[in-house]
From TrEMBL, chain A:
Annotated Gene Ontology cellular component terms: cytosol
InterPro entries xref list: Aromatic_CoA_ox/epox, Ferritin-like, Ferritin-like_SF, PaaA_PaaC, PaaC
Protein name, as recorded: 1,2-phenylacetyl-CoA epoxidase, subunit C
Organism name: Filibacter tadaridae
One Pfam short name: PaaA_PaaC
SUPFAM superfamilies, sorted: Ferritin-like (SSF47240)
GO process terms (BP): phenylacetate catabolic process
Gene3D superfamilies attached to this UniProt entry: 1.20.1260.10
UniProtKB/TrEMBL annotation, chain B:
The species this protein was found in: Filibacter tadaridae
Record-linked InterPro entries: Fe-S_Maturation_MIP18, FSCA_dom_sf, MIP18-like, PaaD-like, Zn_ribbon_PaaD
UniProt superkingdom: Bacteria
Domain MIP18 family-like: start-end pairs: 13-83
Protein name, UniProt field: 1,2-phenylacetyl-CoA epoxidase, subunit D
Length: 270, 168
């Protein structure tokens, strides 16, 4: 099956584009929040790892935007930089600030939150990527194979941090428990396709929301069993659904910083 | 146009020149030996090169693309060059040639191991002295494709290319 822009059925194309925006925007914001830890992570190895993971994730976002460009959705750089927050399809979890303050001055960032967000997000990304390897849209399936290999190292990294901190001092456990609760408040749209649920699921681009949720829990079960902690429940309904363009002010702030240079001279060649 | 004046650029000549295109971050290894060159086709003086990205977020990709174009343009009779990155087949670390392994070591980077244990861990010998008495310092390194290790024999920090495989 080799589908090009011109031969895709209208509904099918809409489904592919919707899904790609969700995947692209998720990794774009996740990578950005990770990059804000540069120079701030608790030790040098964590700093190097965090930067590498952010760089990989930005590469994944760039690749999805490129696939969108090939479908005629617009220029990849423009899709990344100039869409207003109301058009963004990322999950709320990926846009959340790392904590109080600003990374250039007095960043009161929360490492426990970063570890939990990254670990839960990476596990969610993994079940999506595993499913996307069998996507009916071949360009996505091929890209997923590539992402999967890089994601392996991300998961290994965050899982190590997650287990070690939850096995550490009472203070660490307390902070981690609080971080888990905060992350889960925002988890309601991570596996949501928003208003496009029916269309995306009908086109066999990826597993259903329910299948992904169940796989996510299944992957976490053995890790949590060892830690004697219950896998937290995913909220039934999202307070805000990022897939439908509902966002927090954190996203506006992030986009302002992210796109500052691009907007100074959008036609510059880097 | 007679046979004598027709322009023809052989893929062999292109492949030969691509041996001079190095990874800008590891300038001892050519893109051929890194296994990044998937396909070279020529029609008359038009050359098309299909490359595979090692890691998707690698910032060197655009530079590699430019250097590839420039190198091939230097060849006599070449009219136009097109360089494209594709994701399929996926680049894996076992695409690196034996020569590539040698060139990596010359740069102080241990070549990627061919085998991984069931738990995903892997072992390489020191890139400098060959000792097997090494420890993993950080799976992540100065670039996406490298890890940082320490050799307890020659007391050097060295790097290794991460194994990347579809089995991961």
């Amino acid at each position: 099956m080799n589908m090009t822009e011109s031969t895709l059925d209208k509904d099918y194309k809409e489904a592919v584009i919707s899904l790609l925006f969700q995947l692209a925007d998720d990794d774009f914001l996740y990578a950005y929040r990770g990059s804000e830890w540069l120079g701030l992570a608790p030790h040098i190895e964590a700093d190097v790892a965090s930067s590498s993971i952010s760089q990989d994730s930005m590469g994944h976002a760039a690749m999805y935007y490129k696939l969108l460009e090939e479908l005629g959705a617009g220029k990849a750089d423009d899709l990344a930089h100039i869409r207003p927050s109301s058009e963004r399809k990322n999950s709320i979890l990926t846009e959340r600030a790392n904590g109080e303050g600003f990374y250039m001055e007095t960043p009161l960032y929360d490492w426990a939150y970063e570890v939990v967000r990254s670990y839960f997000y990476t596990q969610a990304k993994k079940v999506k990527i595993d499913s996307l390897c069998q996507s009916s849209y071949r360009p996505i399936a091929e890209a997923a194979v590539k992402v999967k290999m890089e994601l392996y190292y991300h998961k290994l990294h965050w899982e190590t941090w997650f287990k070690q901190l939850l096995n550490s001092t009472d203070v660490a456990k307390q902070k981690m428990t609080e971080a888990i609760a905060r992350v889960m408040v925002d988890f309601g749209d991570v596996f949501s396709y928003g208003n496009q649920k029916q269309l995306i699921e009908k086109c066999a681009l990826i597993d259903t929301e329910e299948e992904l949720k169940s796989n996510w829990k299944m992957n976490l079960d053995p890790v949590f069993a060892v830690l004697h902690v219950e896998v937290p429940a995913i909220p039934e309904k999202a307070v805000r659904n990022g897939r439908n363009g509902e966002h927090t002010k954190d996203l506006d702030e992030a986009l302002l910083t992210l796109s500052e240079v691009y907007n100074e001279d959008p036609v510059a060649i880097w | 146009m007679g046979m004598n004046t027709s322009v023809y650029v052989s893929t062999k000549r292109v492949n030969e020149i691509l041996k001079n295109v190095k990874d800008p971050e590891i300038d001892s290894v050519s893109i051929i030996d890194l296994g990044m060159v998937e396909k070279v086709t020529t029609i008359g003086g038009n050359v098309k090169i299909v490359l595979l990205p090692t890691f998707l977020g690698c910032p060197a990709l655009e530079i590699i693309k430019k250097n590839t174009m420039n190198a091939v343009k230097e060849l006599a009779d070449v009219k136009a060059v097109e360089v494209e990155f594709v994701y399929h087949p996926p680049w894996t670390s076992d695409r690196i040639t034996q020569q590539g392994h040698k060139d990596l070591r010359a740069f102080g980077i241990a070549p990627p191991p061919r085998h991984m244990k069931e738990d995903g861990s892997w072992h390489v010998d020191c890139a400098y002295c060959g000792s097997t008495y090494v420890t993993m310092e950080n799976i992540f390194g100065p670039t996406a494709c490298r890890s940082i290790l320490y050799c307890k024999s020659c007391k050097n920090v060295f790097e290794a290319m991460k194994p990347v495989s579809t089995l991961l």
